[in-house]
Design a protein that fits this description.
The chain is an alpha/beta fold and about 220 residues long. It has a single domain (about 5-215), classed as Alpha-Beta Barrel (TIM Barrel), CATH 3.20.20. The protein has eight helices and eight strands; from the N terminus they run E-H-E-H-E-H-E-H-E-E-H-E-H-E-H-H. It has helices spanning about 20-30, 50-55, 75-85, 100-105, 155-165, 185-190, 200, 205-215, and strands at about 5, 35-40, 65-70, 85-90, 110-115, 135-140, 170-175, 195. It has an eight-stranded parallel beta sheet. Strand 2 (about 35-40), helix 2 (about 50-55) and strand 3 (about 65-70) form a beta-alpha-beta unit. The two termini are about 15 Å apart.
C-alpha cells in the first residue's frame, strides 16, 4: 500500500491572505503546501519569490514544496532555502545545468524535485532520478491555474513508475495540474504518490471537506 500525499497548490488563493490559507490547509489535513513561483519568462505569469515563501513559512509547520517555474532556478537555490523551503522543484526544461542544480538543492538542506512539461518525454528526466526525491509530472501546461487535466499524462505516469520500480529507485511520482475528484483516482492508480490539486481545493468553498473527499478516493 502506498501512502498518498496531498499537497494543495495555492496559486488561485487570495495572495493578500496566503498566511491564513496556509493555516487552514494545515488544520484541514494537507500533507504539504505547493507554492508556484513564476518569473514571467519561463511561463507567461508572475507570482512571488523568496520573501513570500518566508512569510508563509511563519504561518505553518507543513512542508513547503516550492515549484520553480523559472528560467534560472540555479540562481535562487540559496535564497529559497533560507526562506524556509523544504523542497525545491525545478523544471527539466529550464536553462541551467540540471544535475548541478539538483546537487545544490541538496547541499542547501532541501529535498529535490524535477518537473516535466506535458510535451517533454518521460525519458528526458530518467538520468537525473538518482538525484531526485520527486519526479513531478505536469498534467497541464505550466503558468496558470484552473486548466483542464491532460489525460495523456496517465501514460507518462505509468512509464515513469515502471522505470523507477525496475531500477529500485526511491524517487516518488507527483502530479500537478487539473487534479480533481474525477481524475485523482486514475492518477493514483497510474502510479502517483503525491497530487497537487489547486482549484478543486482552494476554490471548493470547504477546504477540509475537499481534502477529505480526495483522500477517500
Amino acid at each position: 500500500m502506498r501512502e498518498i500525499r496531498i499537497s494543495p497548490s495555492i496559486l488561485n488563493a487570495d495572495f493578500a491572505d496566503l498566511g491564513k490559507v496556509a493555516e487552514e490547509l494545515e488544520q484541514a489535513g494537507a500533507d504539504a503546501i505547493h507554492l508556484d513561483v513564476m518569473d514571467g519568462h519561463f511561463v507567461r505569469n508572475i507570482t512571488f519569490g523568496p520573501a513570500a515563501v518566508g512569510a508563509i513559512r511563519r504561518h505553518t509547520s507543513l512542508p513547503l514544496e516550492v515549484h520553480l517555474m523559472i528560467e534560472r532556478p540555479d540562481l535562487y537555490v540559496e535564497q529559497f532555502g533560507d526562506a524556509g523551503s523544504d523542497m525545491l522543484i525545478m523544471h527539466r526544461e529550464s536553462s541551467c545545468d540540471i544535475g548541478e542544480t539538483l546537487d545544490s538543492i541538496r547541499k542547501n538542506g532541501m529535498k529535490t524535485g524535477l518537473a516535466l512539461n506535458p510535451d517533454s518525454e518521460a525519458r528526458s528526466g530518467f538520468r537525473f532520478l538518482p538525484k531526485t526525491d520527486m519526479l513531478l509530472i505536469m498534467s497541464v501546461y505550466p503558468g496558470f491555474g484552473g486548466q483542464k487535466f491532460i489525460r495523456k499524462s496517465l501514460a507518462k505516469i505509468k512509464s515513469c513508475r515502471e522505470y523507477i520500480r525496475e531500477r529500485g529507485l526511491k524517487t516518488i511520482i507527483g502530479v500537478d495540474g487539473g487534479i480533481d475528484h474525477e481524475n485523482a483516482g486514475s492518477v493514483i492508480e497510474a502510479g502517483a504518490v503525491e497530487i497537487a490539486p489547486g482549484t478543486a481545493i482552494i476554490s471548493s468553498g470547504n477546504i477540509k471537506k475537499a481534502i477529505r473527499e480526495l483522500r477517500d478516493l
